[in-house]
Batch of 2 targets.
Target 1
Amino acid sequence: MSEELFKNVISHAKEYGFVFQSSEVYDGLAAVYDYGQNGVELKKNLREYWWKSMVQLHENIVGVDAAIFMHPKVWKASGHVDGFNDPMIDNKDSKKRYRADVLIEEYQEKYRVKNQKEITKAKKRFGDAFDEAQFVATNPNIKRNNAKIEEIDARLKEGLESGELHKIKELIEELGIACPVSGSKNWTEVRQFNLMYSTQMSATDGESQIYLRPETAQGIFVNYLNVQKTGRMRLPFGIAQTGKAFRNEIVARQFIMRMKEFEQMEMQFFVQPGEEMKWYAYWKEHRLKWHKNLGIDDSKYRYHDHVKLAHYANAAVDIEYEFPFGFKEVEGIHSRTDFDLKQHEEYTGKKLRYFDNERNESYVPYVVETSIGLDRMFLVLLTNSLQEEDLGDGKSRTVLRLPAALAPNQCAILPVVKKDGLSEVAREIYNKLRIDFNCFYEEKDAIGKRYRRQDAIGTPICITVDHQTKEDNTVTIRFRDSMEQKRVAIDELEGIISKEVSMKALLKGLL
Ligand code: ATP
């Protein structure tokens, strides 16, 4: 069922011009995607919702737009050259490459599925009297499976943390994991594989290797002092940025969930040392509020605290959304300490300090980061909004219940027929409204069919022009969600649409 839903999301995204595979006419490029005519609008609106919530609604947050190319030493200092790796293993027969940790995690998943089957069976057997927690704690099969999962976890963690990758290969062999393509267990050694893409830049003394940024955050850190000084910023303050990031993800799957080229929306919040946990708590709560403000059901979100912290962090949490394939990270909130700025001080030999007038001393600020993937959030919206609605009498409709302020088109203007001068009247309305809104104009096909098409791309309001319009200057407006229709004067349209699709109203929900 969930797999079915996800397949529908992918095909809907293509059929209605939201997302296409990159270079599709050349049979596509794996894990790279293009946004179509509707996708680009939805993505832009989502970015705007994020940007305004950060920059416009916080007096102490400003934005930057740093270049994708950066000095190569940036990535040495940040730890990405040496440490931004995934453990890879190749199958010698199929020549396919896999992430060793993912192969192991998928193997563990089989035990989870087995447990779920036991639970479903027992639920049926015991009916209302079923106590799931007690069953899970006492059923011998489930206990055995959980112990196995934990043992594998511990061994995987040990192999990764110690860097003794042969232990991970031994684990794969011991578990009898076979290549899903060739079915063979003929594996190479496990090797670390860096996720950064590199390219060449000509310099006066020859060519030098540079990287395509794997995160936007470093563009903020290296500009920290520029912004602080020119903007006369006082702590605490934040710098926000949206932009492309690149990662050579080998196991790229699940549509726009894991891409090789994607867009991040990141904000680094600079604070006094010692105050980071207070701000970490603030951003953890505030960011979840941002998600829920989009009208997404509470039960679809959860926090996932990191047990194992990255070398630069002293606290980290993911905001996860329940996709059809399970709860997955959409955003990360990390307390990054003074790690990055200190590293850049060390590698540049320059001071990246803040002079605190009140304390009369200078120090390197601490940083709390919020980092969300724009594409992943786009997928949350599509997945959450796409509904097949039963209309009774064997009829149904496909409707994309996007938050109205983010929909690609805010309204559609539809003359019932082309003739009798209705097109002209409709175009007049279109020309008036398009200054303020993204309007869609269409005069072909039966009106019902046109409504369905607008439902499928999430247009909140349809405006229908008919013969009565010519007599009394009124039109029918139809609301996407309720399908309610009412007659209103043309002069009222601007006010009604403004209210329905207001970004201002959406942002107010955050105050
Ligand atoms: P994951 O564990 O899923 O690989 P991550 O922990 O590496 O993600 P971060 O480095 O914290 O991710 O990046 C911040 C955000 O950027 C993520 O929460 C996610 O929304 C997004 N993101 C990261 N990698 C990708 C990708 N390959 N494709 C699309 N979005 C991504």
Note: The pocket of adenosine-5'-triphosphate is lined by residues 215, 247, 249, 258-259, 262, 264, 329-332, 371-373, 375-376 (CB under 6 Å).
Target 2
Amino acid sequence: MTQIKLFCPATIANLSCGFDVLGLCLDNAGDEMIVRKVDQKGVRITKIVGADLPLETEKNVSGVAALAMLEAYESHFKVIDFGFEIEIYKHIKAGSGIGSSAASSAGAVFGINELLGQPYSRKDLVQFAMQGEKLASGNAHADNVAPALLGGFTLVRSYAPLDIIRIDSPEELFATVVHPQIELKTSDARSVLKQNVSLKSAIMQWGNVGGLIAGLYTKDYDLIGRSLHDEIVEPLRSVLIPGFDQIKQTALENGALGSGISGSGPSIFALSRGKNTADQIAKAMSEVYENMNLPYEIHVSKINPDGVRIL
Ligand code: HSE
């Protein structure tokens, strides 16, 4: 095999209570990528369609993630006398809050790993894809790349050492994600955060993280909903998102289990039980932005159990 075509899924990070540690993988929103093995050594981005992103390998998240992986491969396994080309077909907008950079980073390392004969597990690939996130936002967070690579829900239990736990989604869980058409850079959305939190807030936050994980394992939809609460980050970031309070309120009134900022925003997500409710929430969210005359995109998606996949 010398060429592979991939679907690189969008993801929702944080999930309200789990800043930088929780994420889930979406099913029907994502990019496409072609990774090709070529004679010339190194990594080249040969084509980007759908976005104005740098082609230079060291300035592109896919390139940086791929280089990190190949450096590790050559030092642990063997030096290779060939290289790789990457074509990226972007559908996820940069700065949308549904893991645009993560999809590209995850796709690149997954594709190269396949063409090398799978020397690494999907979990092993997370550390390399994180280097793309570092380039994109200044911080090597894993809460988008982990679900993009592993599918389902993921918890980053620890960053040093990296310890990632994948959790199956309850069958009937659906996500609705609305993207008001403004760009919010993750680095900007991180700059509004405080470096310290109160013990009172921390207690509420870790109670909810535990509750959400327990809810996922026991398929307790109400517990999942009660746990989708963010004491720490949402109050500081929500002011950057037009109509946030109204969208969230609308989602809850229309049957959402919970709702919050998707990743670093400006997208807003809601989780619900069953597709009908998720569709109804999408309709109600759309009306809010239509009344505000604000262009938006909306997705209703099952939780994707697989992560990046070969097309
Ligand atoms: N955890 C990251 C943040 C996700 O909220 O900054 C960015 O998509």
Note: The chain is about 40% helix and 25% strand.
